[in-house]
Structures are given as C-alpha cells and as structure tokens.
Amino acid sequence: MQVLQYIVDLGATVMIPIVIFIVGLIFGNGIGKSLKSGISVGIGFTGISLVISLLTDNLGKAAEAMAKNFHLGLNVVDVGWPGTSPLAWASNLGLVAIVVSIIVNAIMLLTKMTKVVNVDIWNIWHMAFTGAIVQIATGSFTWGIVAIVIHAIIAFKLGDIFKPVTDNFFELEGISIPHGSSATMGIFAKPIDDLIEAIPGLRDINISSKTIEKKFGVFGQPSIIGAVLGLIIGLLAGFSVGKSLQLAIQMAAVMVLMPVVVKYIMEGLIPISESAKKIMDKHFKNSEFTIGMDPALLLGDADVIAAGLLFVPITLLIAMLMPGNRILPFGDLATIGFFIAIATGVHKGNIFRTLISGSVIMTITLWISNQTWQLQDKLGRSVGLLAEGKKVGSLDQGGNPITYLLTEGITKHITIGFIVILVLYVAAFVYTYVSYKKNKLY
C-alpha cells in the first residue's frame, strides 16, 4: 500500500509516463522505445498541466470576478478537480480503488464486456470519489467498494460506446476515453443531436471553428477566436482594458498551445497502441482493443476549446438563474471543456449544437452538485483536508450522475429529483448505446 501511495503522490505527469513505460515493456517495445514513449507522454501531460495552470490562474480569476461583478452571492465554492481529487486519494478507498478497477477491467476484458485496456491510473480517482461519497453516506466500506465496481463497469463501457467519436472526430484511433465527465455526460449529446436534426431550420445551423475560419478568413483562426473570447470574458469580469487584453492573449495562447502538447502524448501512445493491437490480434482475433486514456487528449481540438471558453459565462449564468442553487462555479470553470468534449465530437464540431447539449449537461451537473456538496464537505473533513466552516463542492464528480444515483439509490433516498435524473440518465444511456450498436453514433 505504501508503494501505491508513493505512486499516487507523484501525480499524473509522472505516474502516467511510468505506466506507459511499463506497458511498453510488457508489449515488447524494448527499453529505448518504451522510454521514449513514456517521456513523450510525460512532456505532453506536463504541457497540458502548464496550459491548464494558465487557464486556472487567469481565466479562473476572471470567472471569480464575473461572479462578484454580477452579485451571484453563492456560498458553496466549486473547488474543481484539483481540489476534489486529493479528497478521493486521501480516503481509505483511494488506493483500494486502483486495485478494484484493475480487477474489474481484467474481468471485463476476459469476458469480452469491454475492449478498453485502461492505462489511465490517475483518473481512477473518479471511481474512488464515488466509493468514498457512498461510504460517507452509508457508513459502509462494502457499499463503497460496490459503488467503485459499478462506476468502473460503466466507465469502461462508455469507452467502448464513444470509440466511433474518438476514432473519427478526434482522430485518436486505437484510443478510448473511459473516464471523466466527458464520457459520463456525453450520453446526453446523441438524443439532443437527433432532436435538433428533426427540427427544420435548427438542423441547418452549423457553426464550427472550421466554418468560422472559412467564412471570416484570418479573423476566424483559432488564435483570433481565443483572443476575442478572452477579451469578452475579461470585460464581463470588469477588468480594465489592459487586463482584458492580457487575458485575450493568454486565451489565444491556450488555443494554439493545447493542440501542440496533445501531439506529444499521441506520439508516445502510438507505439503502445500499435504493439497492443498486434498482441491482441494474435491472441484474440478481431478484438480491436483500445488504450484507455485521459480525457485531456480531447482538449486539443479547436472546437472543444472554443466551446469551453463560451461555457465560462454560460455556466455562471445557469448558476445565477437556477432556483435554490448554492454552488459558485469556480475551480472547474477553466477546464469546462472536459464536460462538453465528447458532446462536441458527437455533434461533429458544431458549436451551435454543443451550446444546446452543453447547457443541458451543465444544468444537470450544477443541480447534482447541490445535492452532493454536503457529503463532499464531510469527506473533506474526515480526511483532514478541509477546515470547519468551509463550504465546498465540485462540478467534476461532485456533479456526476453516476455518483449521485448510486449514493441516493443505495441509501434509498428516493426523491422526485432522483427519479428525474434516473429516468433522464438511463434513457440517454440506452438511446446512445442503441445508436452505437446500430453504427449511428457518429
């Protein structure tokens, strides 16, 4: 357990490259090739970490200023995934979740329930968080383990379901995204996309970074789009013209740098993916196994970045208008792209459609966060990472339907809200799964 704790303490930028290096050796790539793969992935994740820091430090301050500027008065602060993941790892289910999820993944592979070979150890914190919240709610370690198992099964299956999207739109062939809010919330995109397709007029609206660039030339390039959105957000935050211009340049940098750093991750993963495919094809004919990776890979797409920036003010507006809402979106605002990335792919980069499905996604996320923040608060105090009197919640995982439904279902806390979310989520999941089986998801 001490070894596992040490690995977790290293963080994703070190832990994932080590895993990639070991996986490379297992798949017969040799020390040199495996080392290069691990370092390339490490460079990519370090780059992503720096870009996300750029977002958090600058866009995060703008978001906070916007909240104050519009007098939202919300008293439960969204600490985001950087503040939530340590709570999951510090719980007594944190390290257990790694072992449990690996076992679940192995069983699902052997029984052909999934084609995802998960190497994304860091994001197992999502499953650990679900288990920890269920344990806090029930007082039962066993129910916490059950919750981890169920979350893992759903996550790996989502990796399979959205393979057509990650293959065709994001061009990540051989890679799956079985973790995070992207896949969990992405199931709402397909039914909404088909609904829009059935409405004359709406179905003809197509706005994407490519169509914008084609129509507006140099003014439609990703860097210009990022600069314009950054300037608008800065002005809405009440920043001076000078500070708003600084934010504009920083957001332009994000639009340009994110795809660059993601390329390093792909360079490191391609040899692993190719070797894994050869081995799997040898032992399991027509298996088409995929490598399960971090949803950060999706953030390199220009449409995802543009939609993510647009959802900073939109999410704050939803928070302001939602009756009874106490959550102040903050920590996850800078990385809102995680929530709408898969949806963007399902909509084939159509930002107009993403704004519609994303608004549904963020509304559901915020509502659920309001139901779970007190349990997250208790978890934070139980692991000694949250002082008395602090009120914190999170959008990432705190607003996760899987966590919410398992917690309320196991504790038999059946409310109208629970029934509504259950019906919506199950219906969207089934609809998306059927579309996937019929090869109509993308």
State the order of secondary-structure elements, H for helix, E for strand: HHHEHHEHHHEHHHHHEHEHHEHH
Q: How much of the residues is beta strand, in percent? A: under 5%
Structural class: mainly alpha
* Tally of separate helices: 18
Strand line-up of the largest beta sheet: 5-1-6
Distance between the termini: 42 Å
Seen as an oligomer or otherwise, the chain set is single chain
Radius of gyration based on Cα positions: 21 Å
Count of extended strands: 6
Mean pLDDT: 84
Give the biggest sheet. 3 strands, parallel
The share of residues in helices is 55-70%
**Anisotropy-based shape:** globular
Low-pLDDT ranges: none
Protein described:
With 442 residues, the chain is mainly α. It contains 18 helices and six strands. It has a three-stranded parallel beta sheet. The longest helix has 43 residues. The chain is globular and about 60 Å long. The model has no long low-confidence stretch (mean pLDDT 84).
Write a brief caption for the model.
The protein is mainly alpha-helical. 70% of the residues lie in helices and 3% in strands.
Topology:
Layout: H1 2-10, H2 12-26, H3 30-69, E1 76-78, H4 80-90, H5 94-110, E2 116-118, H6 125-138, H7 141-161, H8 163-168, E3 175-176, H9 180-186, H10 189-197, H11 209-216, H12 222-236, H13 241-283, E4 290-292, H14 302-321, E5 327-328, H15 337-346, H16 351-382, E6 392-393, H17 401-410, H18 416-437
Parallel strand pairs: 1-5, 1-6, 2-4, 3-4
